[in-house]
Amino acid sequence: MQVWSAENEKWDYVDALRSSLRHDPDIIMIGEIRDGESARVSVQAARTGHLILTTLHVTSVFEIFERLLDFGISYLDILSVTKVVMNQRLLKKLCSCARPRPIVPGDMVGD
């Protein structure tokens, strides 16, 4: 099931999440947790046995816990519902002229 929501209408993000809980899903993918209310509803859903997959905009994996604490989620709730945390970064791709050349031992070089 996919639910659309818009922040400028009466049917907002948190209402869509609460409504999806009534359908008894096993897994809920939340685009991004942006405020305390959506964080609280997400934790409530996780405590009732739903697997919640979501994103947070942070610069390191350690900031995830700090951000959830800032949203008003207790440390105990964070620890009880968190299964996996990971961080992703985009790295610049070096052009071939700037790439370091690998050092290859002489006995590995073919004729």
Automatic annotation (TrEMBL):
GO terms for molecular function: ATP binding; ATP hydrolysis activity. Keywords: ATP-binding, Nucleotide-binding. Residues 21-35 form the Bacterial type II secretion system protein E domain. InterPro entries: P-loop_NTPase (IPR027417), T2SS/T4SS_dom (IPR001482). GO terms for cellular component: plasma membrane. It holds the Pfam family T2SSE. This is Type II secretion system protein E domain protein. It comes from mine drainage metagenome. The lineage of its organism: unclassified sequences, metagenomes, ecological metagenomes.
